[in-house]
Design brief:
Helix content: under 10%
Largest sheet: 4 strands, antiparallel
Shape: globular
Distance between the termini: 6 Å
Number of strands: 13
Radius of gyration: 16 Å
């Protein structure tokens, strides 16, 4: 069985979608977002084609460990760890333009990892004590059958022994 993140850019290594007046600062390839009247929308236009579920869970790891202003109620509160998770189901359809975040006046948000998971994968991850994974936190990288070539950095899968 494989657990997969369905986010196009799980390392948050590209400019993410924003709305309104948002300033993006890049330092060593890491982007920080600040705004007085705008939002960071890291899940908008980010789900890979073929997402198999009628609902989902979005997860994000911020460098910052504090309260955040989010559009959805958190499944996992990241004030201590920086890792947040949100149910993105509305009327039986995943709503991947949400959650979105307001950095707040005089503060920044720095996303370090992103994930979109099916409810079944989310339940397994919770049993393993994980909120999200990236190439650095996955227990081991999945290797395609017969190829021996690691998966693309933009499609992070990892396997669990059945």
């Amino acid at each position: 069985m494989r657990i997969r993140t369905w986010h196009r850019h799980p390392r948050a290594d590209v400019a993410l979608t924003t709305w309104g007046s948002v300033t993006v600062t890049v330092s060593d390839g890491v982007r920080s977002y600040s705004s007085q009247h705008g939002t960071l929308n890291p899940f908008a236009h980010a789900v890979l084609t073929g997402f198999p579920a009628k609902n989902g869970v979005c997860t994000i790891r911020f460098r910052e460990t504090r309260s955040i202003i989010a559009s959805n109620t958190a499944l996992v509160d990241g004030r201590k760890t920086g890792e947040w998770a949100f149910d993105v189901t509305s009327a039986g359809t995943p709503q991947f333009w949400s959650p979105y975040f307001s950095p707040g006046v005089g503060t920044t948000l720095t996303p370090l990892a992103l994930g979109i998971f099916t409810p079944d994968d989310w339940r397994i991850m919770q049993m393993l004590g994980l909120n999200l994974f990236d190439a650095l936190t996955a227990p081991y990288a999945a290797v395609p059958d017969g190829g021996g070539i690691p998966p693309s950095p933009h499609r992070l899968d990892w396997g669990l022994a059945a």
